[in-house]
Amino acid sequence: MSVLEPDSRIQDPAALAEIELFGELVVAAADADKAMSHAEIDRALGLADSA
Predict the structure, then answer these.
(1) Are 25 and 45 in contact (CB under 8 A)?
(2) Which one has a higher pLDDT value, 35 or 47?
């Protein structure tokens, strides 16, 4: 069985980055014991504190 390499003509770096961020948020939400605040979501996504 051979492994197919992805076709670079159909890759979307922006979509891949968005999927990665979404995955990080899902992991953080799964670990949370309550609804996450906006600040907690920002931290999970690696955003700087705006305050």
Answers:
(1) yes
(2) 35
